[in-house]
């Protein structure tokens, strides 16, 4: 860890500035060992709360030159996905809470955006629910649906 910034006054965000400790780097795409750093950028990533503090990690994301792929690729980090702005363990905590609460409730509890929690929930559902065999489905019936709070409320019935 490079440094820690504790919250001042009413602020509730604890900032942890990380630094790379491993000299061994691996390509995120092919997994090959890489020797050369192409560039480094800092990404802000949310982690699990610490007591009453929201934790933000400032992670140096290294783009390495992969000889196998033939170009710059992100360094593989086991605890952070390619485009993710939350750590894997924070996503797992959200998944656990989503089993008992709504997306809106989890977003409010962890002070995350609704769309962030919804994307975590979609990933969880895709991993747990198998894709149906669409060739065996002959009819798709819908009982009722509403388009938000607008004046249009459509109802359909299927003969069953």
From TrEMBL:
<dbReference type="InterPro" id="IPR047951">
    <property type="entry name" value="Transpos_ISL3"/>
</dbReference>
<feature type="domain" description="Transposase IS204/IS1001/IS1096/IS1165 helix-turn-helix">
    <location>
        <begin position="75"/>
        <end position="121"/>
    </location>
</feature>
<dbReference type="Pfam" id="PF13542">
    <property type="entry name" value="HTH_Tnp_ISL3"/>
</dbReference>
<dbReference type="InterPro" id="IPR029261">
    <property type="entry name" value="Transposase_Znf"/>
</dbReference>
<dbReference type="InterPro" id="IPR032877">
    <property type="entry name" value="Transposase_HTH"/>
</dbReference>
<feature type="domain" description="Transposase IS204/IS1001/IS1096/IS1165 zinc-finger">
    <location>
        <begin position="25"/>
        <end position="69"/>
    </location>
</feature>
<dbReference type="Pfam" id="PF14690">
    <property type="entry name" value="Zn_ribbon_ISL3"/>
</dbReference>
<protein>
    <submittedName>
        <fullName>ISBma1, transposase</fullName>
    </submittedName>
</protein>
């Amino acid at each position: 860890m490079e440094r820690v910034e504790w919250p001042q006054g009413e602020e509730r965000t604890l900032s942890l500035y990380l630094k790379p400790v491993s000299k061994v780097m691996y390509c995120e795409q092919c997994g090959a060992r890489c020797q050369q750093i192409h560039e480094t950028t800092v990404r802000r990533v949310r982690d699990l709360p610490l007591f009453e503090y929201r934790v933000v990690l400032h992670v140096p994301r290294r783009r390495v030159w992969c000889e196998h792929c033939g170009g710059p690729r992100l360094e593989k980090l086991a605890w952070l996905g390619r485009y993710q702005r939350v750590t894997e363990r924070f996503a797992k905590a959200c998944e656990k809470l989503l089993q008992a609460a709504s997306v809106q409730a989890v977003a409010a509890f962890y002070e995350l955006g609704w769309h962030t929690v919804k994307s975590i929930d979609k990933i969880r559902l895709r991993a747990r629910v198998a894709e149906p065999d669409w060739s065996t489905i002959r009819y798709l019936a819908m009982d009722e649906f509403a388009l938000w709070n607008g004046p249009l409320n459509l109802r359909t019935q299927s003969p069953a």
